[in-house]
Amino acid sequence: MAEAHQAVGFQFTVRPDGVDFKLSQEVIKNIYLSGVTAWKKRAIQFKSLVKMFSGRRPLLYSFQASLPRLPVPSVDDTIHRYLESVRPLLDNDQYNQMEILANDFRDFKAAQLQRYLILKSWWATNYVSDWWEEYIYLRGRSPIMVNSNFYIMDLLYMTPTHRQAARAGNVVHAMLQYRRKLERGEHAPLRALGTVPMCSTQMERMFNTTRIPGIETDIVQHLTDRKHLVVYHKGRFFQVWLYTGGRHLLPSELETQFQRILNDTSEPQPGELKLAALTAGNRVPWARARIKYFSQGVNKVSLDAIESAAFFLTLDDEPQGYDPAKTNSLDSYAKSLLHGKCYNRWFDKSFTLISYPNGKIGINAEHSWADAPIVGHMWEYVLATDCFHLGYTEEGHCKGDVNKGLPLPTRLQWQIPKECQEVIETSYLSAKQIADDVDFHGYLFTDFGKGLIKKCRTSPDAFIQLALQLAQFRDQGVFCLTYESSMTRMFRDGRTETVRSCTSEAVAFVRAMEDADATNAQRLALFRKAADKHQNMYRLAMTGSGIDRHLFCLYIVSKYLGVDSPFLKKVLSEPWKLSTSQTPQQQLNLVDINKFPKYVGAGGGFGPVADDGYGVSYIIVGENLITFHISCKFSCPNTDSYRFGQNIQKAMLDIQGLFKPENDEKVVERRKHIENGKKHI
Questions:
Q1: Which is nearest to 545 in space by CA: 71, 76, 124, 110?
Q2: pLDDT digits over 632-675, tens only?
Q3: Which of 38, 58, 458, 659 is least surrounded, with the fewest CB atoms within 10 Å of its CB?
Q4: Are strands 351-355 and 312-315 parallel, antiparallel or unpaired?
Q5: Domain CATH number, residue 214
């Protein structure tokens, strides 16, 4: 997802003097610390396992200790696959030059770097993940809003209540239930395809977690059970306690507290309205302001309340959500979740829950601590619990008695001097420029879905990825380096790997689709070959044989050792002009969407990755719906999110047409409709 943005041209600094021995010491020290962190995690997980052995049912961490370590691929395999991946994107001279760089690296520099990676893989539980978190996320000094954070939407068609405080009450209570089960390890273990155990480590920091800004690098602060929530509404920050008498507040009690905040007519204090813009702007000004203005007095107390909260809640004052009667409703909804007003989300929190006055909700999630499927797992539980277990009264209120004796939510107090207000305004203006540049299009593809694709005997993901390649070529007239996020959570502490979707086989298929002389039989044969290639690459990525994380770690070691590698520099600076990700659905299977087809989620998305490219998140929902979340930048004259959505739709239908007779009335009619629509753009 948004990690592709951070993975290009990141800055890396090493402090030791330029003496080889000292640099070698530095990398050994770093590897040692990685191992110490890993062993501390094991100790914590071992305590959880002890508790689990007393029960019969496998629980969240039951298989954690048995997960294998992520293997370090051989240098030869990685270089071979890398050269294969860039072949369709380079002319002969460019490819020959890249081959020379790659062979020089393999013959003279790779062996030394590889030895350190193998050493790290023996000592630490994962040779990639801690460096990935630190150098791709935490050391980035640019704004995390849009560039890194991602969002997840509410149910697409259903809004169980239109009362804002009631919906927030049920959802927050469901989140507290999820957190309690998480802390006790009571969730069922995560499994790929329902059978293969997956790593659950990322879930540990879901709650009570905040990214803390620093001058050179941020840190992720994770605390134990937190008993309060911080709520933002119309420029004011409120603290709400989540417990009373040793138990969670009931949904009806939470509704009462949130309604009290909605009814509060007090004005923001000086500097309070846009305070959260500090988390939306560049990291260094925020880090300096935090030290200078928030390290003592009431400002420190109030900031501590935010950073130590279970999570952050925004009660927005403008309705959002999908409305089929409004053409751009998904676009507006996505931009609201992704960046809002640039000051009404606390972008440093592990996630901000956003509640709208029409009852819709959504999430903005910080990316360093976990990837989208982890947040999605929690979100599925929350939505199912909200709608099918907690429910609402006929009037739309939370069920249960109203406890009017609860202490009132308390306003956080601030004393923000003029100088700090100027820093806040500068951060706001910087963030607003980024937000205003986001060109977003949300598109529901309803012509067919997973059900029909499977009848074509092909992988739905491969089908969509090839459609994206076809759409990209039609949109831009060229092929580009394409990033698809794959997971490596079948390994301990695994996160993601990259699938390079623009293969030679995909290029051959797209060219055939654009060749008027090619027959459908030829196109179909090339499609199957390209789809098979994509599936094989996806399997390699999932099973530890991907290339990009290996190259990334080789580069990190090279910087520690002071080894200059033109090959690695070239690889790590290549732009991903098309960044894609599939967000999984039905991880928990708590809702039978065949029985309740209106209770499907809309998925989520992320901001544009390249200045002149596209970000595309897609969600395969049930058998007959695929949602696309498309982003790019208004400042680029060559991209247009709506146009790209139209190209995706046509590409999907054209590929489907390979499997059906040419005179199929529905397909022909849809193609005509799309072509006519394009004439009016």
A1: 71
A2: 999 999 999 999 999 999 999 999 999 975 435 555 566 666 66
A3: 58
A4: parallel
A5: 3.30.559.70
Helix then strand then coil, % of the chain, to nearest 5: 45, 15, 40
Task: Look at residue 531 and tell me whether its pLDDT is greater than 90.
Answer: yes
Confidence band for 21, pLDDT divided at 50, 70 and 90: very low
Which residue, 411, 437, 463, sits at the end of a domain? 437
Query: What domain range includes position 356?
Result: 144-190+201-437
CA distance 15 to 29: 13
DSSP bridge partners of 354: 314, 362
Hey, is 497 helix, strand or coil? strand
List phi, psi (to 5°) of 364.
-115, 125
Do 433 and 488 lie in one domain? The reply is no
Per-residue b or e along 389-427, where b marks 16 or more CB atoms closer than 10 Å to that residue's CB: ebebeeeebbeeeeeeebeebebbebebeeebbebbebb
415 and 453 co-located in one domain: no
Give dist(CA 324, CA 471) in Å, integer.
25
Q: Which among 633, 675, 273 has a CA at the least distance from the CA of 439?
A: 633
Quickly list DSSP for 543-574.
TT--SHHHHHHHHHHHHHHT---HHHHHHHT-
If you average pLDDT over residues 111-127, what whole number do you get? Answer: 95
Q: How many other C-beta atoms lie within 10 A of the C-beta of residue 294?
A: 23
Determine the pLDDT at residue 19: 33
Q: Which of these is catalytic: 187, 367, 441, 534?
A: 367
Calpha distance 479→507 (Å, rounded): 8
pLDDT confidence tier of residue 45, bands split at 50, 70 and 90: low
State both tokens at 274.
């846009």
The whole-angstrom separation of Cα 249 and Cα 398 is 12
31: which 2 tokens?
């590897």
Q: DSSP secondary-structure letter at 57?
A: S
Query: DSSP states of 519-535 as a string?
Result: -HHHHHHHHHHHHHHHH
Q: Is the dihedral of CA 377, 383, 384, 390 positive or negative?
A: positive
Q: Of 398, 658, 347, which is closest to residue 512 (Cα–Cα)?
A: 658
DSSP tag of 350: S
Q: Indicate if 162 belongs to the active site.
A: no
- pLDDT per residue as tens digits for the range 268-289: 999 999 999 999 999 999 999 9
Phi then psi dihedrals of residue 534, to 5 deg: -65, -45
Residue whose token pair is 């997960």: 67
Total domains present in the chain: 2
Asked if residue 589 is part of any domain, the answer here is: yes
pLDDT of the residue at 43: 57
> Is 77 a member of any domain?
no
- Regarding whether 279 and 358 lie in a shared domain, the answer is yes
Residue 502 and residue 404 share a domain: no
pLDDT digits (tens, 9 = 90+) for 556-604: 999 999 999 999 999 999 999 999 999 887 788 888 888 898 999 999 9
Query: CA dist 164 to 174, 177, 320, 625, Å?
Result: 16, 20, 12, 28
pTM: 0.91
CA distance 24 to 27: 5
Q: How far apart are CA 62 and CA 190, in angstroms?
A: 10
- Identity of the amino acid at 338: L
State the Cα–Cα distance between residues 502 and 500, nearest whole angstrom: 6
User: Tokens for 476?
Assistant: 């831009």
